[in-house]
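Format notes (please read before filing issues)

Several people have asked whether sequences and structure tokens are stored in separate files. They are not. Every record keeps both together, in the order shown below: the sequence lines, then the token lines. Line labels are part of the format and must not be stripped during preprocessing.
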Amino acid sequence: MSNWQGAIDSCLEALEIDPSNTKALYRRAQGWQGLKEYDQALADLKKAQEIAPEDKGKLAACVVKVSFVI
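Then the structure lines:
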């Protein structure tokens, strides 16, 4: 069993230090997905996409995946 809440908590700590940490946003989105909180996951992925448009392809694929589930 995965510790999704623990991952989210760790990412929250990282984001308190650096709110533009796209890796923490991506990992937190994965945690939200694991908890079936798809709206939260989508919000984090969209924020990461705004911060790092150069990663658009990778993040866009994740956004589509989460949007499909919603």
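For reference, the curators noted about this record: The domain at 4-69 is CATH 1.25.40.10 (Serine Threonine Protein Phosphatase 5, Tetratricopeptide repeat). Residues 4-17 form the longest helix (14 residues).
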